[in-house]
Amino acid sequence: MVTETRMQQEALAVPQVIAAQLEANAGRCAALGAALRETPPQAIMMIGRGTSDHAGVFAKYLFEVEAGIPVFAAAPSVAGIYQRQLKLENCLAICISQSGQSPDIVQQAELAKAGGAKLIAIVNVTDSPLARLADTVLPLHAGPELAVAATKSYLASLSVLVQMCAYWQQSHQLHAALEQLPEQLQQAQNEPAMLHTEHLQQLRHCVVLGRGFGYAIAREVALKLKEVLGIHAEAFSSAEFLHGPVTLVEKHLTVFNIHIHDEGSTMHQRQLADIEQRGAEVIQMKAPANMHPRLQPLAVMQRFYLDIEHAARQLGLNPDAPPGLKKVTETH
């Protein structure tokens, strides 16, 4: 494969990034897991914007399913605009940020700590304001990410969350699956493409559907379709899509189907079959069934990032510099 863009280079680096990260963070995650078992949080607040916020959706499913702890997303405007302090005693705040310097994210983290929460920073820049503020830092170890569209930092965020969960819950299955993850992501890079230019050339509007962990990554897929290709894409849970938006299918809607082989697979496929019968054009994005179900979403994203980068170049677009975007968005 010829490397032509920063986005492609960074997506291809993911297996090596995650292999190094898992080794480097093992001690930190073991200590954090022991502390969380000794004093379990009553709830977890996820703090992030954009791609990091989407990693927080994955964290919601992960920690609620594997640890039984309720997880909710912070609304940074509550701190930044409305200047309200939440009461977060006995809570954990997990802040995800590649740069660790977006002002509204740092402010939200400051107020979470002031409200009584223990703060974990999952961050790529370890001397950033966010990292200095945190009680515990879990570095992404992703190296510089120069393409505007995040790839390796997103997948590294997901692997950090799974490693943290594996140590916290003392899950031998998750530990074993993580050991195989870099090799399986390498395999995903060598799989046939799921997206093709003919799917995308005339596409202007679409939806991305998943269930559970599939929905968690559907948000990121939709974002990349918007920012890299300029396609209007919206993500839904396949269950939620039936509560009204399914009427859009009558207009020959294109649907990206994220199929994860887990507890929700049968119901999700039943819902997708109904949608297809109504006339939708369905583009399949299936996870490899031979992976641990909690890690299958990472393989889907690994393949998708390479596919969308290639599609952008085929369509005459620059995936490294989507119009109107920059790497660090300083929202106040």
From TrEMBL:
Biological processes, Gene Ontology terms: carbohydrate derivative metabolic process
Keywords of the record: Aminotransferase, Repeat, Transferase
Coiled-coil features, chain-numbered ranges: none
GO terms, molecular function: carbohydrate derivative binding; transaminase activity
A Pfam family hit: SIS
PROSITE patterns with a match to the protein in the record: SIS
Residue span(s) of domain SIS: 32-180, 196-332
Record carries keyword Repeat: yes
InterPro entries named in the record: GlmS/AgaS_SIS (IPR035466), GlmS/FrlB_SIS (IPR035490), SIS_dom (IPR001347), SIS_dom_sf (IPR046348)
Protein's recorded name: Glutamine--fructose-6-phosphate aminotransferase
